[in-house]
Design brief:
single chain; alpha+beta; Fumarylacetoacetate hydrolase, domain 2; twelve-stranded mixed beta sheet; 8 helices; 20% helix; globular; binds zinc ion
Amino acid sequence: MRIGQYRTTDAQTPWAGVATDDGVVDLAEAGAAAGIHVPDRTSNLLADWEWRRKADLAVEYAESTGVGVRDPADLDRAAPVDDPQKVVCVGLNYRDHAEEGDNEIPDEPVLFSKFPTSVVGPDDAVRWDPDYTEKVDYEAELVAVIGERARRVDPDEALDHVAGFTVGNDVSARDLQHGDGQWVRGKSLDTFAPTGPELVTTDEIDDPHDLDIFAEINGERLQESSTENLIFGVDELISFCSRAFTLEPGDLVFTGTPPGVGVYREPPVLLGDGDSVTIGVEGVGELTNSFETE
Ligand code: ZN
């Protein structure tokens, strides 16, 4: 199942819909017509008891009756989860990336965070003030979306707490990130966490540790790897995080980026007004955002 969030007007709170061959199924509307209460926002949906069964029933009802099916052309896409409580990220988590920079393979994940206010969706632009940062960079990432509260879970149970995966761009202001001595400001500017286009549920992904991943800047491929190069897999990351803090439904875990980010290229590739970045993860989707100075 591919769960996105949509809106028909700019002012509307995004609502969860499932992308199907017929169109986008408005889960709350189709559910209500079928006599099932389905929360209208992804974060609330994932926190709901038996959410997957309810969503399946709503989609079945919509497909047989046409109720709640919307034409995607009439909709704007929002982030699949636009209101996570936490956005957790991990540094240096690809073997090939570590080797490229002559870094040692870390013994434990190094965590940092982006503030939830940085999250935007597949139709949104990444915007920044060029007087505030001059070094805006991209990072292609597989993002795990938490489905069930996780506290002190073992790696072998951790994936049971994941609802699915989406594509993320861990946009980074390198001058702020490296100038501050810690990363939260450079990683958390508004709009610096594009995610989407949809949350793809775990049953559709055979092995999250065997997916091709890439970044293209204005059509040129500058990052290309596979999640088989992850040093700490999704299961280990979730387990590691959950020993420190509770992961809640809708929380996003960015799993790190492969080699080829702009700041370490010769010459460096930094993003400017009018650039377009596409991040792709095999089986999960492609996320394209425009980059604009303001
Ligand atoms: Zn990153």
